[in-house]
C-alpha cells in the first residue's frame, strides 16, 4: 500500500543546489534521490580551485620518494592490473556546516555535500608493492592537478594530501578510474582519483598528478592548516586532524517545513558512519520526548555507504511537530544532541531534525 507522501519516482527532475560557481561547489539533492548509486549528474561537486586542464601527462602516474624502484604507470597499465570495485560514500568534511551555531566561515553546505557509488580501480597497496616501500616510509603524499591561489598566500598551491602507511595499504584504498561502470566524470577526478573509504572526502584526491612516499609528516596547506578541527575560536589549542566520518543521519522525507494531512506518513532517510555499519536508527516525532526504532534496509547496509531506513508515523493530531533521527553504528557511536563546534565547521553530526505541520 502506498502512503500519501510516497511515490516510486520524483515528481520532477531535481537540480544540484548551487553554493558557488567559481570555483564550482554544488550539493546533491539527496531528499529526492531514490537509489543507492548517485548518478554522475547529481554527484556533489567540491572544489578549492578552477578545474584543471588535462594533458598527456595526466594519463601517467609516477610513484617516487622512499621506494626502492620509482615507477611511472601509464593509464593503460593501470587498466591491465587486477582491479577492485568498492561501493563508497564520499562526504565533504564541511557537510551540514550551515547548521553550526554560532555560524562559521566557509561554504554553507546543507546536507547534500555527499554522494556514493561503485568505484573501480587498482588497490594502492599493489602499486606500492611494485615500487617497493623502504622501511623509512612514513606517509604517502598525493598531489592533484588542480591548483590556484588561496587568500593570504602569495604563491599558487596544488591540492595535496597525505595518508599514513596503514590507511594507504588498506586493500580497499584504491586508485580509481571508473565510477558506476563508466570512466570517472571529469568533474569528479578523471582520469585517476584516490578513493579512501570511511574518511571524509578531502582524503580522496581528484586528478592525481603524482604519488610521493615520504619519511616525515606532511605539512601541506590542506593537511595541517585546513581540514583540521580547531575547537577554540581564538587559539589552536586542542586541534586535531579531520579523518574518519562521524556517525550521522538525515531525514529525506518529509521535507522541512512541510504541511501534511492527518493520516499515515512514511518517514524515511539515510544513516552512515566511517567507524562501521549502521546498526540502529531511532526516530522521534515529539521533539525527542520518546523514540521508536526505524526499519533498516538490509540491502543497503555496508561499512562504506549509507543505510536507508523507514518508519511509519500515524499523525492523528493537528499541530506542529519536530521529527528527529538518531543513528548508532557497530562500534557503539551514537549521534549526539549537539555537534562539537569548531571554527572551520567540520564534521557536523548532531541528531537530524525537520519541522512539519499537520492540518
UniProtKB/TrEMBL annotation:
Pfam assignment, any one: Mo-co_dimer
SUPFAM superfamilies in UniProt: E set domains, Oxidoreductase molybdopterin-binding domain
Cofactor(s) demanded: Mo-molybdopterin
Domain Moybdenum cofactor oxidoreductase dimerisation, first and last residues per copy: 245-348
Keywords attached to this entry: Metal-binding, Molybdenum, Oxidoreductase
InterPro entries xrefs: Ig_E-set, MoCF_OxRdtse_dimer, Mopterin_OxRdtase_euk, OxRdtase_Mopterin-bd_dom, OxRdtase_Mopterin-bd_sf
Superkingdom as given in the UniProt entry: Bacteria
Annotated Oxidoreductase molybdopterin-binding domain residues: 48-221
Protein name in the entry: Sulfite oxidase
Amino acid at each position: 500500500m502506498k502512503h500519501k507522501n510516497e511515490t516510486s519516482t520524483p515528481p520532477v527532475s531535481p537540480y544540484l543546489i548551487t553554493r558557488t560557481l567559481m570555483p564550482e561547489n554544488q550539493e546533491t539533492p539527496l531528499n529526492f534521490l531514490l537509489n543507492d548509486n548517485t548518478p554522475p549528474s547529481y554527484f556533489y561537486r567540491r572544489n578549492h580551485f578552477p578545474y584543471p586542464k588535462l594533458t598527456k601527462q595526466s594519463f601517467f602516474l609516477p610513484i617516487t620518494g622512499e621506494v626502492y624502484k620509482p615507477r611511472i604507470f601509464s593509464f593503460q597499465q593501470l587498466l591491465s592490473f587486477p582491479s577492485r570495485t568498492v561501493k563508497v560514500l564520499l562526504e565533504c568534511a564541511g557537510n551540514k556546516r550551515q547548521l553550526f551555531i554560532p555560524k562559521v566561515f566557509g561554504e554553507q553546505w546543507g546536507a547534500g555535500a555527499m554522494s556514493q557509488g561503485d568505484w573501480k580501480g587498482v588497490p594502492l597497496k599493489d602499486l606500492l608493492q611494485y615500487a617497493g616501500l623502504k622501511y623509512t616510509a612514513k606517509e604517502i603524499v598525493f598531489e592533484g592537478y588542480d591548483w590556484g591561489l588561496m587568500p593570504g598566500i602569495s604563491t599558487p598551491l596544488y591540492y595535496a594530501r597525505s595518508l599514513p602507511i596503514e590507511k594507504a595499504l588498506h586493500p580497499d584504498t584504491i586508485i580509481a578510474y571508473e565510477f558506476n561502470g563508466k570512466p570517472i566524470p571529469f568533474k569528479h577526478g578523471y582520469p585517476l582519483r584516490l578513493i579512501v573509504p570511511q574518511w571524509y572526502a578531502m582524503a580522496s584526491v581528484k586528478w592525481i598528478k603524482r604519488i610521493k612516499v615520504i619519511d616525515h609528516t606532511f605539512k601541506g596547506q590542506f593537511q595541517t592548516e585546513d581540514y583540521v578541527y580547531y575547537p577554540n575560536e581564538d587559539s589552536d589549542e586542542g586541534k586535531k586532524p579531520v579523518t574518519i566520518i562521524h556517525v550521522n543521519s538525515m531525514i529525506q522525507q518529509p521535507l522541512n517545513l512541510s504541511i501534511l494531512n492527518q493520516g499515515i506518513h512514511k518517514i524515511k532517510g539515510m544513516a552512515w558512519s566511517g567507524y562501521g555499519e549502521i546498526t540502529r536508527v531511532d526516530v522521534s516525532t515529539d521533539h525527542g520526548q520518546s523514540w521508536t526504532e526505524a526499519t533498516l534496509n538490509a540491502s543497503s547496509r555496508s561499512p562504506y555507504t549509507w543505510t536507508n531506513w523507514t518508519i511509519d508515523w500515524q499523525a492523528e493530531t493537528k499541530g506542529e511537530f519536530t521529527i528527529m533521527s538518531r543513528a548508532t553504528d557497530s562500534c557503539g557511536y551514537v549521534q549526539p544532541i549537539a555537534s562539537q563546534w569548531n571554527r572551520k565547521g567540520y564534521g557536523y553530526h548532531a541528531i537530524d531534525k525537520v519541522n512539519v505541520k499537520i492540518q
